[in-house]
Amino acid sequence: MSLSLAVAVESFPIAGSFTISRGSRTEAIVVAVTLSDGRVAGRGECVPYARYGETVDGVVEAIRSVEPHLAEPDFDRARLAEVLPAGAARNALDCALWDLEAKASGTSVAERLGLVGSTPLVTAYTLSLGSPESMADKAKEVAHRPLLKVKLGGDGDGARIAAVRAGAPKSRLIVDANEAWREANLAANLAACEAAAVELIEQPLPAGDDAALRGLASPIAICADESLHTVADLAGLRDRYSAINIKLDKAGGLTEALAMAAEARRLGYRIMIGCMVGTSLAMAPATLLARLADFVDLDGPLLLARDRIPGLRYEGSAMWPPEAALRG
């Protein structure tokens, strides 16, 4: 069976701006993939991420490099993993293959995986990095949301997290430092998070420079994000992290992410399912993993000024399973 490939680069404006410790942006640039066998078509979406050395042009080129293999009679997700490394390009193709297989078989991906669910899940809602005052104001606006994810940036984070807690006294809080903390401010920032009843801290220290976390006694779950990409990374992180953030764009697709979730559970990690800022097409396959997670952070479409149509159904922070029109 030979498959045809279509690739499109698309831009979706962000509502306002999205700011983390590494900078700000006002649009989400995504790469969408369609694979067709002539009868049905499967779709996937990825978000190239500069932190991992990815560019839009480079990801498109990587996707196109697979085109000669699409004529192979036994081309499948396992073969894809042989010809492309983990990353955004493989994610888009892997998810498109899952979608294509489901549509060809008449059985949804959720049914094939035994992850069918009709009830909504609660996703975190992200607050961008800013001054304590601006973050407090934003926290007040979204204080009705049950779970907030707070972007932090290093020095001054104690004041930021205290301001958010004051603005949203009833919301559960998780934070993401995006590698911005250093050993010198680690203890103070941890204490501030504990005082604010933060439940999880993502990647406080830079990947590769996180030895200070080894043996750390903290009541807050310390979560690996930039330090973690694939199953192969899990065993070596156990002495520094008690939780992991699985993202399809890092893992290289749903196939690897499912393997990561299974191995993470075996090793005793808590699991967070996260995302880049993308559309509902990127979130849809991740919603399957969300049913295996302790924390869900799939708010990408909520941060956009407009989403793909059809998109996921959100009611506040409640996220419903994707309809068939969005995902096979």
Please characterize this protein's 3D structure.
With about 325 residues, the chain is of the alpha/beta class. The longest helix has 18 residues, at about 90-105. It folds into two domains: about 5-105, Enolase-like, N-terminal domain (Enolase-like, domain 1, 2-Layer Sandwich), CATH 3.30.390.10; about 120-320, Enolase-like C-terminal domain (TIM Barrel, Alpha-Beta Barrel), CATH 3.20.20.120. The strands form three sheets. It has an eight-stranded parallel beta sheet with strand order 5-6-7-8-9-10-11-12. A three-stranded antiparallel beta sheet has the order 1-2-3. Helix 1 (about 55-65) crosses helix 3, helix 5 packs parallel to helix 6 and helix 6 (about 155-165) runs parallel beside helix 7 (about 185-195). Helices cover about 30% and strands about 25% of the residues. Strand 6 (about 145-150), helix 6 and strand 7 (about 170-175) form a beta-alpha-beta unit. The protein has helices at about 55-65, 75-85, 90-105, 110-115, 130-140, 155-165, 185-195, 230-235, 250, 255-265, 280-290; strands at about 5-20, 25-35, 40-45, 120, 125, 145-150, 170-175, 200, 220-225, 245, 270-275, 295, 315, 320.
